[in-house]
Design brief:
Length: 399
């Protein structure tokens, strides 16, 4: 594996970089560290880091990368700032709500350190553009929150021989590692050869997350990035750190490469980006969940029309009780997804059944389960209660 004193920034680039008088003052606390010194700070200035996502993980990462003096920070994000982001996404303030995250993030980073060049990639990270986006950067900090993007970023980094600094959060727990087969460690696929089925791993929007947790994990990712750049310390290549905020405990796991890995194994079979949406569409160890064509959907506007016309229908809410307490659609019957198969007798077997959740993913799974159980007129509510708040009734709280 990578030695303690090897930097990913070559000496050829280092010779082209100088620090100005203001930078000696700005980074003086770095310069006092023998492990950093002026040479290390020049490496930091010469580094190019891509933040994949400018949300909970990307916010603290981008801010501290900028404060440290990273020369170029790339931001991939095409979303807009929402009020619900502010509990954890510290790049943004109340005045930024409704604006593009990428533009608000650039303004905040430039305020933190005007010496940093910020490159915006205001687009979705896809199989078509990922390799082109990643190419100019030295390493990637993956702050994504979905499986297609995680597998895509992993594969592209393996192909390009660039470190992929991984982080994820869920409620009160988080984890971080560095996936870099070219440095002797495994890749993401070595740990997770196949994604979980849809709905099995809810997002932060569905499960919630302690606001400070992404800050902790995002800063762990940033720390690893700086260590790779200056060539100091022992990195998380070949290790995964798990953090439990409720217990304030860290656990470490040793990771090994899978010789059968289709991307970084001894006989790889994947040499270019694939269709990751299809790959993450629902297969897992012999128990596939595939809904293509099996579950029809209905829009929130159509649901509202049916309700106003008093058409006979049953609206089933498959979210958790604490979500139901935050926001609900009038007349919706709460049956959490995990209890659905045991409570089928509570659902009328005749008439229309519409299944609803927060954004439409869990409800799609729920509607599929009902169809498998023999219900005929079952529909998934597109966009869930979030779409209902946006398009039908703004008085319903968003979360």
């Amino acid at each position: 594996m990578m030695g303690m004193n090897e930097s990913i920034i070559g000496d050829d680039r280092l010779s082209q970089i100088a620090l100005g008088a203001d930078e000696f003052a700005r980074y003086s606390r770095h310069l006092l560290l023998p492990e950093v010194s002026a040479a290390g700070q020049r490496r930091i200035k010469g580094a190019r880091v891509l933040c994949l996502g400018a949300g909970g993980l990307g916010s603290p990462a981008a801010l501290y990368l900028a404060a440290a003096g990273i020369g170029t920070i790339g931001l991939v994000d095409f979303d807009r700032v929402d009020l619900s982001n502010l509990q954890r996404q510290v790049l943004y303030g109340t005045d930024d709500v409704g604006t593009k995250k990428s533009e608000a993030a650039r303004a905040r980073i430039r305020d933190a350190n005007p010496n940093v060049e910020v490159v915006l990639h205001d687009c979705q990270f896809t199989s078509e553009n990922a390799q082109e986006i990643v190419a100019p950067y030295d390493l990637i900090i993956d702050g994504s929150d979905n499986f297609p993007t995680r597998y895509l970023s992993n594969d592209v980094c393996v192909f390009a021989r660039k470190p992929n600094i991984y982080g994820s959060v869920f409620r009160f727990e988080g984890q971080a590692s560095i996936f870099a087969p070219h440095l002797g460690g495994p890749c993401y696929r070595c740990l997770f050869p196949e994604p979980p089925p849809p709905g099995a791993a809810p997002s932060c929007a569905e499960a919630g997350v302690l606001g400070v947790l992404p800050g902790i994990i995002g800063l762990m990712q940033t720390t690893e990035a700086l260590k790779l750049i200056i060539g100091a310390g022992e990195t998380l290549v070949g290790r995964l750190v798990h953090f439990d905020a409720l217990k304030m405990k860290f656990r470490e796991f040793k990771l090994r490469r899978d010789p059968e890995c289709p991307v970084c194994g001894e006989n790889p079979t994947i040499f270019a980006p694939i269709d990751y949406e299809q790959f993450c569409g629902g297969q897992i160890a012999g128990d596939a969940f595939e809904t293509d064509g099996a579950v029809p959907s209905v829009s929130v506007r159509e649901l509202k029309r049916k309700m106003d016309a008093r058409e006979p229908l049953t609206l089933i809410d498959v979210r958790e009780p604490w979500e139901y307490e935050i926001a609900k659609i009038a007349s919706a019957r709460l049956i959490p997804l995990g209890e659905l198969e045991q409570r089928l007798t509570e659902i009328p077997s005749e008439g229309i059944v519409i299944v609803q959740c927060h954004s439409g993913m869990r409800s799609e799974h729920g509607a599929w389960l009902l169809k498998q159980a023999g219900f005929e007129n079952v529909y998934n509510l597109e966009g869930g209660i979030e779409a209902w708040s946006n398009e039908v009734d703004p008085a319903v709280p968003k979360y």
